[in-house]
Amino acid sequence: MYIEIAMFAYFVVLFLTLRDVRIFKRTGYRSYRTGAMKGLAASSLVLIGAIAVEANPELGLLFVLIGLFINRKGIRERVFTSAGTLDRFLGKTDYVKRKSRQNR
What is the mean pLDDT of residues 62-90? Predict the structure, then answer.
């Protein structure tokens, strides 16, 4: 049962990290980049915890818990104004960054 809990936590952290990467690519907001970087560190720690669960469940779940605390994102810019629940879940934003004149 412990391995299932740890792997579920790993996939949740990984999903939220990929969602932050997608929002950062669409908007260019640095807070989402920071969140994605925190998510990478957190997912690595959660994966180590999931592996350690086999040897020592308490220690493995402690690593998972610490990884989940690292994954806290903080204050973000508002990127959803009229998006529905599914769009928010998938990371589709209402705001898209403008292309600079150099990219045209």
Answer: 85
Q: Exposed (0-12), middle (13-18) or buried (19+): which is 79, by Cβ within 10 Å?
A: buried
Considering only CA atoms, which of 47, 59, 35 is closest in space to residue 8?
A: 47
- DSSP states along 35-81: HHHHHHHHHHHHHHHHHHTTT-HHHHHHHHHHHHHHT---------S
Residue pLDDT, tens place only, 54-74 = 999 999 999 999 999 999 888
CA dihedral 6, 18, 78, 100 (to 10 degrees): 160
Burial class of residue 1, CB neighbours in 10 A (0-12, 13-18, 19+): exposed
Map residue 15 onto helix, strand or coil.
helix
**Rounded Cα–Cα distance for residues 47 and 11 (Å):** 9
Give ∠ CA 8-11-22 in degrees, rounded to 5: 150
pTM tops 0.85, yes or no: no
Tokens of 18: 């990929």
